[in-house]
């Protein structure tokens, strides 16, 4: 018979590991942005096609890359003592469900769009996914609660509690 081991607690990361992973994450997404932009410029040079749409969208992508890079670099930046010891790690950039997850999605989408836009300008339509995703996230966090009301008010009442309340009300009337 095999003994079942109790579920283990999820291991927590140390400060040093968080700082190292943040640095690696920022470098990875910076390199992704730089490579996508360089390949796109190379594609422009080879195909010698520079439409106004391509230039404007490339500038928007580069702005998104720069803004994303600085955002991740600033919130993931650790606070150090004069000796180099870690006081505060900064925000963990690899945490699930955090804002940095959405920022990374922006970098991935813009880099991918830049690369496939070399083939056809119709791929710039993929950039419409950014405001659609932003609207969806806004709806999930704010809009749903505002328009649908408080979910606690609509919670189903337990039958036993309902009967108990009815008995109390009947006693109060008598």
TrEMBL record:
Pfam families: TMEM208_SND2
Membrane topology note: Multi-pass membrane protein
Region feature (Disordered): 153-174
Main location: endoplasmic reticulum
Spans traversing the lipid bilayer: 53-73, 122-139
Keyword Transmembrane: yes
Keywords assigned by UniProt, alphabetized: Endoplasmic reticulum, Membrane, Transmembrane, Transmembrane helix
Biased composition annotated in UniProt, kind: Basic residues: 161-174
GO CC term (a single one): endoplasmic reticulum membrane
Entry's localization field: Endoplasmic reticulum membrane
GO biological process: vacuolar protein processing
Stated family: Belongs to the TMEM208 family.
Protein known as: Transmembrane protein 208
């Amino acid at each position: 018979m095999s003994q079942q081991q109790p579920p283990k607690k999820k291991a927590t990361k140390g400060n040093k590991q968080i700082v190292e992973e943040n640095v690696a994450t920022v470098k990875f997404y910076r390199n992704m942005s730089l490579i996508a932009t360089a390949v796109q410029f190379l594609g422009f040079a080879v195909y010698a096609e520079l439409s106004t749409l391509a230039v404007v969208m490339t500038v928007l992508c580069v702005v998104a890359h720069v803004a994303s890079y600085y955002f991740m670099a600033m919130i993931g930046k650790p606070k150090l003592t004069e000796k180099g010891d870690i006081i505060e790690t900064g925000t963990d950039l690899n945490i699930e469900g955090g804002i940095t997850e959405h920022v990374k999605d922006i970098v991935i989408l813009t880099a991918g769009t830049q690369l496939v836009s070399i083939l056809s300008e119709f791929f710039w339509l993929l950039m419409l996914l950014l405001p659609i995703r932003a609207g969806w996230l806004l709806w999930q966090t704010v809009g749903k609660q505002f328009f649908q009301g408080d979910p606690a008010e609509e919670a189903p009442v337990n039958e036993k509690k309902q009967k108990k309340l009815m008995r109390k009300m009947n006693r109060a009337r008598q």
